[in-house]
Amino acid sequence: MALVEISNLSKTYQTGEIVISALKNVSLEIEAGSFVSIVGPSGSGKTTLLNLIGVLDQPSSGSIKVAGKEVSQLTNRQRAEFRGDHLGFVFQNFNLIPVLTVYENVEYPLIMVKNESAAKNRDLVRGLLDAVGVLDQQFKRPHQISGGQMQRVAVARALVTRPKLVIADEPTANLDHDTAFKIINLMKEMKDQWHTTFLFSTHDPKIIDEAEIIYTLEDGIIKSRQDRRSK
Amino acid sequence: MIKIARIAYRNLLRYSRRTLLTSMLIIIGIVAVLLFIAISGSFKQLMVGQITDSMLGHLQVHRKGYVASIENSPLNLNLNDKQVDKLKTVLQQNANIAAYSGRLKFSGMLSSYTETSNIRLNGINPEMELKTAPLLPQRVQGKKGTAGVPTLNPGEIWIPDTLASGMNLDIGTQIVLVATNKDGSVNGIKLLISGIVGRMTGPGGRDGYVNMKDATQLLRIEGEEINELAVRLNRLDLMKPVFTDLQQQLEQFRNKKDKPVFEIHTWEALSPFSNIANIIDLLTLFVKVILVAIVLVSILNVMLMAVYERIREIGTIAAIGTSPRKIWTLFLMEGLFLGIFGAVVGSIVSLGIIRFLNWKTIVMSFGRQEDLVLTPSIEMSQVIFTALIVIAISALATVQPAIKASRLEPVDALRHF
Question: Above 0.90 for ipTM, yes or no?
């Protein structure tokens, strides 16, 4: 069974009298354990699609099943619970909590979302920080580390609850090419190490090549699907 | 919860200048309120103490109708010895009454042989009067007895200081006191000035004193006759219940026309200072309302700013899966911490200032009373109550911004720049 099943998904926005169709009858499936990229020009609907799969937004029509659960009709509270239980997020602007240290940022979802004890998960958090290469920065605040390090911390935070799916919207857009490449490779490593699924959007051609499955989105429509695993 | 508290605390530190400014506003507000309560309360207490303990007593009983014509010092509304006995029986049964003193108030003419002036006098039994008005000796300058208390033996008079200075009279001077009794006949006696009484605010504040024996002799009264009975209670706060109790008991004594014989009043009903005391209470309430407004507006403002500035951050924690309730709690805690910090520091600073003011000694004048020493003090219950009000208002002011934060759609919040 696919981890994500989308059928006939549409999303429209209304600004005054203008109706914008961000997604038009999109259907796709994402297998568990895959490294999937959504590519397309600005305004093609990448972020909208990721927001819908990430249960951050609700579709205008169609169905989204994530981890076997229909998520399109959940209430706010149910959506928050679902995200906490099954999903991890990596944002373009890193979005670390500025008042928390690197360690506390990674620990945050365990304590605040999963209601787990800090002591019980100390090894898990430290292990993740070590895995993403920022253990030596654990006592620093986000503003004291570089952009690449911040995104590593964000990846660790996304993985700490052992989510089934990590969604990353343009995770490399604010990084230089070398750092971007390292972050993508880190995500790939983490996917294998933590047996999770990564879904990210990008428009950087060199980064795109690192994806196993590539969906190309244009004007809210899936134009193509490339499976590069056999290559 | 501890984690939320820690994040809330750090968020406040993140905007340290704003937090400090808001806290300062709350602290200044609390200090202003507590100092006002302490100083005005001390002033009120001092004045009430002066009025009740050196002049009026806590309660006064008269013959019905006397207070309405008190300015004329009427002698035809005196209480006779039977009525006084009845009164004493009622008073002696009440365990909350510490002392009582009968007074015979009258008007007369005081002559120094070269000058003559009107004078209003109280005929008193000095022993009973000093138990009922224990601060009266503080008002009297003059001949002291063995216990260091001014004496008022038969043949002696205490005259008000205004009269002493106006007629150039001093202690040891002999005067003649002339008065008309209730039958209209005039009588006079020679008296020696043994004390000069300082003036007080309110009725009777410029009266002189003579011994009851001299008063009855001058007015040719046979037996015991008084027209005022001042009552001192064990504690001032017992005044209302004792007043109600005595009023009910005295109501039972009726004349032949089935009208009440006695009337009873609290000091508040007799002294104009009670109006000033009420104004002080009203001002205290007004100052408290201002404090509430300061706390409400400043916390509401700072928390709304916090929400608007951190929309993306709220979006992030919501996206990660933080429940709306936890986001609400986070913001509520920030407001609460501001309130708690302001309340605690404000209370400590206020108590420090009150202690300093007591150490420095504040001397003030009120009307023609001078050298009144204020001793500002505040009950701990008042401090705690004010602090709790501030904390509660802080929480209330944070509710709306906290709800706003918790209801933000993560997808919209994450888009916010």
Answer: no
Q: State the best of B316, B327, B409, B416 to mutate against chain A, taking most chain A CBs within 10 Å.
A: B316
The answer, for B135 touching chain A at a CB cutoff of 8 Å, is no
Longest Cα pair distance anywhere in chain B, in angstroms?
102
Q: What is the rounded distance in angstroms from the CA atom of residue A110 to the CA atom of residue A38?
A: 28
Residues of chain B in contact with residue A82, where contact means CB-CB under 8 angstroms, are 321
Taking CB atoms and an 8 Å limit, are B323 and A80 in contact across chains? yes
A19 is a domain residue: no
Between the alpha carbon of residue B25 and those of residues A218, B19, B28, B292, B334, the distances in Å are 55, 10, 5, 11, 16
Question: Does residue B223 come out as left (phi exceeding 0), alpha (psi in the -120 to 50 range) or beta?
Answer: left
Residue A67 lies in a domain: no
Residue B417 burial (CB count, 10 A): 5
CATH number, residue A51: 3.40.50.300
| Structural domain span for residue A146 | 35-60+75-227
Q: What is the pLDDT of residues B136-169, one digit of tens each?
A: 888 888 877 777 778 889 999 999 998 999 999 9
Is A68 inside any structural domain?
no
Give B354's Cβ-side CA count (13 Å radius).
26
pTM of the model as a whole: 0.74
